[in-house]
# Entry
Amino acid sequence: MSLRIVLADDHQMFRHALRALLAREPGFEVVAEAATGDEVLAIAAAQPVDLVCMDIAMPGMNGIDATRRLLAAHPQIGVIGLSAFADRQFVIDLLDAGARGYITKAEAGDELVRAIHTVREGRTYLCPDVAATVATALLDRGSLYAAAPRLTERERQVLQLIAEGLTSMQIGDRLHIAASTVDVHRRNLMRKLDLHNVADLTRYAITQGISPTRQGLEGGLPN
# Structure
């Protein structure tokens, strides 16, 4: 039986490149594509899925939160994270959410195929760029978990929407919370991250990959 794969990335050209790559592999079947975390959850609820290649920064629900929610409902699904960044905090957060693999988009060619085979066998796979980053951090006396302030799921959601330019009222409507609660989260984020205004929060979200603004087709795919 073919492995049923969902490709989740907000860049259509990148999804199509991945689909073409995986179509050459016997036993792999891309059954759906998604541009947001919400679409991933809807697909998994509607049809059988074995594995999701999950972009980290997508509009709406980001890949980390989508992974956590997906695996809460469908723990048998394997998740491999895709990102333009090899930042160790991304790796920590995604693995904490339950993912079994992580590769950078620059290596999303043969490395993705190897990752899928590895995760299919029940093991974890990190691409060389990420493995080197994690190994260096582990040698640094626990700095792997002290690299950056840990944000809650709700804080990441609010920060992402702030970076996307939404007002407190709009964020509240999107997340079904009061605008005053959004303002509380905003103040907590500024205090936790030692930032002082919305512009600073936006820059932080972009540089940390929480906002999809910088998430592009960096590196491309090998032939």
About this structure: The CA atoms of residues 34 and 42 lie 9 Å apart.
